[in-house]
Automatic annotation (TrEMBL):
Function comment: Specifically methylates the N7 position of a guanine in 16S rRNA.
Gene3D superfamilies: Vaccinia Virus protein VP39
Family statement drawn from the similarity comment of this UniProt entry: Belongs to the methyltransferase superfamily. RNA methyltransferase RsmG family.
GO cellular component, one term: cytosol
UniProt keyword annotations, A-Z: Cytoplasm, Methyltransferase, rRNA processing, S-adenosyl-L-methionine, Transferase
Major localization listed first in the record, in broad terms: cytoplasm
UniProt: S-adenosyl-L-methionine binding residues: G105, F110, D128, S129, T130, A156, E157, R175
Compartments, record wording: Cytoplasm
Official protein name in the record: Ribosomal RNA small subunit methyltransferase G
Amino acid sequence: MGASETLLLPEMLDIWQLTLGWQPTDEQQGLFQQFYEGILEGNQRLNLTRITEPMDFWEKHLWDSLRGFWTQESGFVAATPTSLIQNLKGNSEIQPQSLKLIDIGTGAGFPGIPVAIAFPHHSVTLLDSTRKKITFLEALITQLGIQNVTTLVGRAESLTHQLQHRQTYDIALLRAVAPASVCAEYALPLLKTGGLAILYRGHWTDEETESLKSILEKLGGGIEFIEEFTTPISKSVRHCIYLRSSAPLKELPLKK
Ligand SMILES: C[S@@+](CC[C@H](N)C(=O)[O-])C[C@H]1O[C@@H](n2cnc3c(N)ncnc32)[C@H](O)[C@@H]1O
């Protein structure tokens, strides 16, 4: 592995500290590096990502994945994502110590694997409808030795009808999966009451906010807030949309 493929240069650690108030431990840095190398290797066989340069990978995959756990509004620091839940929720209905997360449409493991590495006390389910991606991820997770990740092959819309997944998760992560209203439709039925769906988006428009209204009303949820931010290196504008599940589901049938 040449120097150009070393992922975490000291300046990236500084940027993490400056932007998120957090830095990975040596062990986490090693895991991020192994994860990166695993993706590069898998990319030779599977179409996993076009973002392969170290700096790009760091910013657009790793930093971006973790940015969803850090919000300016709550003053939250990403090292303790439980604060996010507590700050936003304002009560302790969700157990703060070990949250259940689901990454819907994880692809090559984003944002779920960086989140799992950064926050090993939470359990992360990686869901994708493409079996070969999940097979690849299973091998990579074993290679990394991370214990807090499980995988599922399936479609989100079918999971929403299954008792073992319905209203089971504290946080759902969705990046580059579907239009916002479809993401809400996938995520809300899987969340416990009070759980959060985090939609990682590029541009965001008022029309998209409007497009969420009917599905939020139907499934019981609301927009907690919308956060706009700029990425630290390429200075792209991105958004995270935080949706809160607010009511038990009435309208979706369950399947055994
Ligand atoms: C563009 S990729 C994004 C992957 C990753 N979230 C990221 O940001 O790099 C979208 C992924 O979502 C998966 N996907 C799309 N619709 C899905 C659904 N209804 N249920 C589960 N996975 C889905 C696809 O197989 C694909 O791997």
